[in-house]
Task: structure prediction
Amino acid sequence: KVYANQDEASVDVANRIANIIKEKQAKGETAVLGLATGATPVKVYKELVRLHKEEGLSFKNVITFNLDEYYPMKPDAPQSYVTFMNKNLFDHIDVPKENINIPDGTLPEDAIHAYCEAYEQKISNLGGIDIQLLGIGRTGHIGFNEPGSAPNSGTRLVVLDDLTRRDASRDFGGKENVPTKALTMGVGTIFKAKEIVLMAWNEKKAEIVKKAVEGEISSDIPATYLQLSSSVEFILDTDAASQL
Ligand code: GLP
Result:
């Protein structure tokens, strides 16, 4: 779906999330949201905050799972995805703190495997993710599933691609300060979501969007795996869609 600009697109995505939350509320059920970081979803979160503050949308029945976190990473570091999510969304809404799940960048390496399995299990015990937000990295990664990721991969520790670290270097004051690893939900984890919404804005995403949507399905560009799912929607602005 191509929108004139990212503002209109983001309001639409926020409304979809709000509708899921309200439908679940009406039935006394919990809404399970899969959330992403990066510049791409910022306006969706801004609109959700507005809906909370101005239209009384409550997040009390919401449980969230973030896609990924750098490793190692302290939660209170300015570049952590915990800090990002607090600043852009969680500090401004009424989601119960115990309902927020973000991969833990402070774990010792030998605890990671069991932690990742428990992260997956927690999602499935709740009946799965109702709606999963995704951005796309210039390597074609979703979450931090870099080139080489398998379509059935689960939540795990991964090594970041050089281009991904270069793209993150501004946040860290130089590529050498960007962690070399990350924890990420797998492609298989993402695929289990009932609805998947990949958003991309601006000209600089046009090339990778074209490859993801029209290219041959390959582990070289993990976002091409999304072609295999019927629950995926690409939400683009005209610039990101300009090479389609
Ligand atoms: C990071 C995140 C991804 C995100 C990507 C794109 O690598 N782990 O989840 O999709 O960046 O970032 P941006 O939205 O800033 O372009």
